[in-house]
UniProtKB/TrEMBL annotation:
Family matches, as InterPro entries: Cu2_ascorb_mOase-like_C, Cu2_ascorb_mOase_N_sf, Cyt_c-like_dom, PHM/PNGase_F_dom_sf
UniProtKB keywords: Disulfide bond, Heme, Iron, Metal-binding
Compositionally biased tracts (Low complexity): 1-13
Name this protein carries in UniProt: Cytochrome c domain-containing protein
Keyword Nucleotide-binding found: no
Amino acid sequence: MAVALTGACTAPPTDDDAGDEAGDAATEDDAESETGEPLGPTWHQDIAPMVHERCVGCHREGSIGPFALDDYPAASTWAGLALEAMESKQMPPWGQDDANCEPRLPFLNDPRPTQEELDLFAAWVDAGTPEGDPALAAELPELPELGLANVDFDLPMQAPIEIEPGGDQFWCMVLDPGFTEDTYVEGFQILPGNDLIVHHALVYVDAFGQTDALVDENGRYDCFGDAGVDAALIAVWAPGVPPQELPEDTALEIPANAKLVMQIHYHPTGATEIDPGTALQMRQFDGVPGWVAEYGLPGNDDDADGNGLGLQPGPNDATEDPEFRIPAGEANHTERMLISVPPTVNGKVINEVVVWSVGTHMHYLGVDARMSIDRLAPEANTGIDEECWIQTPYYNFEWQRGYNYDGALEDMPRVRPGDLIDIECTYDNSMNNPHLVEALAELGLSEPVDVYLGDETLDEMCLGVVGFAAPNDE
């Protein structure tokens, strides 16, 4: 999906072409209209390869996309809407943008079309979406392989689930990998049981069996936002996303006897649907890795700590002290937090870690987030002091994902205790936010209300998601 496949408009004929033999006539006919004017790009010759590369992973019959784009009749019908969605960066789902925050490395598996591809698609729409000659169709790229190679553990949810029409649903499925000793895992993938309704998924490690008191007889419980217990994030999945592969010689450690929590976001259709068995796949690391990976979730501070850290004063604070409150009707409210990197994470002492993945997390009001680092001392190998890690100006709660750096571990950002992580989140608590309108309707409300920090549907969060790796001392 990360490969840019740029089509080329069919070239208009030259005077020399006019006298060509019949073998070239078909190409000329396809390149010109009946008036002799250039026809422009066509579906079969120019557009289909790009659409298959960028869109068809989700927009095909039986998948999560609301309409198909995998053949000419469907693509030509939806072409105008598809162009609008791509130009506004609503699609393909990718919240990150580097216009005001340029990371030192690109991110893996970026599905966005290039500007050349957008221009080509716009020219096709402007030309009336001509089909072209199927006999001269360009070769279509194969859909990306989304399965995890060399799977060691295949863990389906314990029982099917029925999803009725209505609002979105969030269910936590508890899985038992049966690990009797600490186990290193280097690859993850989610296989949806029903592509029509499985919208995205997050996977957590419950190291202490906290979910035992929450699960029903089918091994699941209702949840929103996260796992609802003190659990460590280990994987993020969305439709069309390739398997999560950790950097070379790096693995996540899952403790012995731990349970896994697969939080699934279901997006109902207009009919009753069954998910017979969405599954988590994992691949074990062979041997002992040189680096052990974990996720940190800095943020979600609801007050200042007295040393200038924590929640910062905001534009709509009602008191002298900072408060996390998003006033009703505010369309551009911000909350900012400063977090000092701690000397220990999840009980482990850290000296210097390498950041290999970043992301942001908010709920339905979230529209933009930015995370940067201000180091106590410049990074030893680069001299970099301050840098922006990620900004997600096209954030959408329904399309959450992680952003993994594309590069060698030694070239990725480094962090030490005492460095400052700066997170700023922007929210739209007005009726111009369609996600808020939908959430209010589900709760029987018609107007915005003040929103505070919390875990419920109309609460909010402001979190960074940081995947980091430390040298393995085993």
